[in-house]
Inverse folding.
């Protein structure tokens, strides 16, 4: 069969020999072996590509060391931790705003009302509702078990409880499914963006957050699924022009997270931490979509 995978597994020693044949400098082979054994060649290879020629020989640029690969790997690990920390804050705020605004307008069980749902997304909403109902039959969380014991006739928990069980991706899909009514407009106004734009932001950032949660490579990744809208209307656009690929890069993710954070926590240190990390590890930030002279030209500096 022509499309069979014919590569053979290699030992750590054989992998080191392969890397050395591609001009990689490995002064401490014992240390390099420990990294290969504990992290794995395939995971590390994602940090090799920017350092290699774009041909079948995969030769490393002159002077490239194994430590350069490890440096980028360690940078990426810490970058994911920073993004996770601040995306948690965005997730918590989105959950609170949905519960607060919609419950006050429609009652605690608003999320079960199909009249609030855009018909384009009723299928996704129904699947989410079915899952919530199924999980509520034998709830795992103590607060849900207590509610079920006290109110046995309820098929669903109230919003403030139900939404606590949803992931960011599920919250994002619920937000998108909601018709643009008074509560959604209020939430959008508090995030200083158009509702339709926020729909795309939350979905895309949920993917970014999932990359972090699954310990996947983040820093030079092209994130093309569920691309977010970069606003062009004067009242919503960024203070400086955004690159055409900002809706696929880490630069775009930092810009979007920064915007959302400033809406409820203007004194946060998210972008400072990202910049300090780049400078500490001396990585090439343009591989994340950052502009030239990003230290002064990045959108969050304006």
């Amino acid at each position: 069969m022509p499309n069979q995978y014919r590569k053979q597994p290699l030992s750590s020693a054989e992998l080191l020999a392969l890397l050395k044949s591609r001009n990689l400098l490995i002064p401490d082979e014992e240390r390099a072996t420990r990294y290969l054994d504990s992290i794995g060649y395939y995971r590390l290879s994602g940090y090799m590509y920017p350092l290699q020629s774009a041909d079948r020989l995969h030769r490393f640029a002159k002077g490239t060391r194994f430590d350069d690969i490890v440096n980028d790997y360690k940078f990426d690990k810490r970058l994911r931790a920073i993004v996770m920390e601040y995306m948690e804050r965005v997730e918590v705020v989105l959950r609170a705003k949905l519960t607060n605004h919609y419950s006050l307008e429609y009652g605690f069980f608003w999320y079960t009302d199909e009249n609030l749902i855009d018909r384009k997304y009723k299928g996704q909403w129904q699947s989410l509702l079915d899952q919530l109902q199924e999980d509520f039959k034998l709830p795992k969380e103590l607060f849900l078990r207590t509610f079920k014991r006290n109110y046995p006739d309820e098929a669903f928990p109230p919003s403030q409880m139900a939404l606590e069980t949803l992931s960011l991706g599920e919250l994002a899909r619920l937000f998108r499914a909601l018709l643009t009514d008074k509560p959604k407009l209020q939430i959008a106004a508090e995030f200083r963006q158009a509702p339709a734009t926020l729909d795309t932001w939350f979905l895309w950032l949920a993917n970014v957050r999932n990359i972090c949660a699954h310990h996947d490579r983040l820093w030079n990744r092209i994130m093309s699924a569920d691309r977010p809208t970069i606003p062009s209307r004067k009242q919503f656009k960024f203070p400086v022009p955004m690159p055409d690929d900002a809706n696929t890069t880490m630069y775009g993710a930092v810009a979007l997270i920064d915007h959302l954070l400033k809406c409820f926590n203007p004194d946060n240190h998210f972008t400072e931490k990202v910049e300090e990390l780049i400078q500490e590890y001396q990585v090439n930030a343009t591989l994340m979509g950052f502009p030239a002279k990003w230290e002064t030209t990045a959108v969050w500096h304006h």
In short: The chain has 13 helices and no strands. The two ends are 57 Å apart (CA to CA). Residues 75-301 form one domain.
